[in-house]
Amino acid sequence: FVRRARRAACVAAGAELARRARRAPVLERVDLESGAARLAPAPVAIGILAVTLVAYLPAIGCGYIWDDDDYVLENRTLRSAAGLQRIWCEIGATPQYYPMVHTSYWIEYHIWGLHPTGYHLVNILLHALNAILLWKILRLLQVPGAFLAGLLFALHPVHVESVAWITERKNTLS
């Protein structure tokens, strides 16, 4: 009898938490396990993405700088499928052996050619996704201030070079 009563109490408590979670506002939900209020994931992720895009918007209009010429403009491996094979299988085919980086350039070259806007936009989106990933990991680990840490990562000036400079894609991918 005692077990059934405890089980019934647990079921009732779970139902109450679920009911509270459904009635909570969009930006605040009740964690069904702990009962603690926390920000809903989708609006927070969209917020981090939006803030990052706004902060790095000036970089979208920039052209190529420094060694972007070697990595994109004059990189013949980006032009064909044979070049993609060379990116992965031939050391020295690209200025540095970063096959994931050069594969991303290869894909982008086939989407928008040599227009730098697309390359800059991809760097910004990768950086925003990294900030969201950091927030989600810290949130999963229940680190207080996870949202602020994600925002700080997204907006800290130390990342400007890696985000605004096409060749530094290796940093945003790592």
Describe the protein.
A hairpin with a 6-residue loop joins strand 1 and strand 2. The longest helix has 25 residues, at 116-140. With 174 residues, the chain is mainly alpha-helical. The protein is elongated. The protein contains ten helices and two strands; from the N terminus they run αββααααααααα. A two-stranded antiparallel sheet has the order 1-2.
Mean pLDDT: 81
Task: Indicate the overall shape.
Answer: elongated
Number of helices, where a helix is a run of at least 4 consecutive DSSP H or I residues: 10
Tell me how many strands there are.
2
Helix content bin: 55-70%
Cα distance spanning the termini: 57 Å
SS-derived structural category: mainly alpha
Low-confidence stretches: 24-37
Compact overview of the structure:
With 174 residues, the protein is mainly alpha-helical. It has ten helices and two strands; from the N terminus they run αββααααααααα.
Keywords, please?
single chain; 174 residues; mainly alpha; two-stranded antiparallel ribbon
